[in-house]
Specification:
alpha+beta; Alpha-Beta Plaits; 6-stranded antiparallel barrel; 6-stranded mixed β-sheet; about 20% helix; about 35% strand
Length: about 325
């Protein structure tokens, strides 16, 4: 779980809301999936479309178990007809690598752990830094930065620049020279909470289904072929209603990730990420039982005693514009 509570983030926050902030996010898990059967193989394992992706495009997807519970979420970029690059949360990397290595038997596929330097450009001026505008989220283009071949990927709040690890220092220096101002990942976390984007290991985990985490629209294709966990996901989508939902919370006092959320005598869930935003105040996300309807008031158990919080629909803020 993650707590974002530093009080001195006003300048960094304004930088990423008004101009362009630079965050080094190289510490993610990276996999290369390649070979003649790579596209078909990924299609059978993850929740979103991979076979129909064109080179230069990407997709957000999840890996599930047979009961439809999340094992990892990831970004998949199609580098070429038979080559894909995947990045995921560091904590999910071992399980993702183990799964993709285990199930490829009989297919012409190589799954390799690798590394990349990743620099996120966040804010409305991100496109001015690189001079690239790849298109829709997860689309990418190739660029030469500081003499290094890079991928420039469109994200929900700017651009990601991906480079080989040995080129990372030179690329970082060039981005800073091009007016990208370094900020902390804490500032990025504030934006993430404001936009209601859950993070694996912080707001959603192996006990949750995609519908509970609010990622169905981004992560699930209901028109593709079979994948592990498809049946329970489709059944819930077409015939059911999740028992839990990703909600926003506005606590009246200090709360911490992992604190229990209650309504009367019933525990509804636990706090995920907490943030103190210069624009939105004290906010948090949590996957809560369906009784936590927007507009209701719940009680959060903290070490200092119970704290009330209003339940709200996500996102707290729709866009980067102030």
């Amino acid at each position: 779980m993650t707590s974002v509570t530093e009080p001195d983030l006003d300048a960094e926050y304004r930088q990423i809301r008004e101009e362009c902030g630079l965050i080094d996010r190289s510490g993610r898990a990276w996999l290369e999936v390649s070979g003649p059967d790579a596209a078909e193989y990924l299609q059978s394992q993850v929740t979103n479309e991979t076979e129909e992706l064109a080179a230069g495009s990407g997709v957000y997807a999840a890996l599930l178990d047979r009961k439809g519970h999340l094992q990892a979420d990831m970004r998949i970029l199609r580098l070429a007809e038979d080559s894909f690059l995947i990045d995921a949360e560091k904590s999910a990397g071992p399980a993702l690598f183990k799964h993709l290595s285990m199930y490829k038997i009989g297919r012409k596929v190589d799954v390799t752990e690798t590394g990349r330097s990743l620099f996120s450009l966040v804010g409305p001026a991100a496109f001015e830094v690189t001079g690239r505008a790849p298109g829709s989220e997860n689309d990418f283009t190739r660029a030469t930065i500081a003499g290094a071949e890079c991928l420039v990927v469109a994200t929900w709040l700017g651009l990601d620049v991906i480079a080989a690890p040995e080129d990372g220092a030179a690329v970082l220096a060039q981005l800073e020279e091009d007016r990208a101002i370094p900020v902390s990942e804490t500032a990025l976390e504030i934006l993430r909470v404001e936009r209601g984007r859950p993070r694996f290991g912080a707001d959603m985990n192996e006990s949750n289904m995609p519908a509970e985490a609010g990622i169905v629209d981004r992560a699930i294709s209901f028109t593709k072929g079979c994948y592990i966990g498809q049946e329970p996901v489709a059944r819930l989508h077409y015939k059911g209603r999740p028992n839990r939902h990703l909600r926003g919370l506005r606590p009246v006092g200090q709360v911490t990730a992992g604190d229990a959320v209650r309504l009367g005598d019933r525990e509804l869930g636990q706090i995920g990420t907490v943030a103190i935003s210069p624009a939105s105040g004290r906010i948090a996300m949590a996957i809560l039982r369906k009784e936590a309807e927007p507009g209701s008031v719940v009680e959060i158990e903290t070490t200092g005693g119970p704290i009330e919080a209003e339940v709200v629909e996500l996102p707290f803020i729709e866009s980067l514009e102030l």
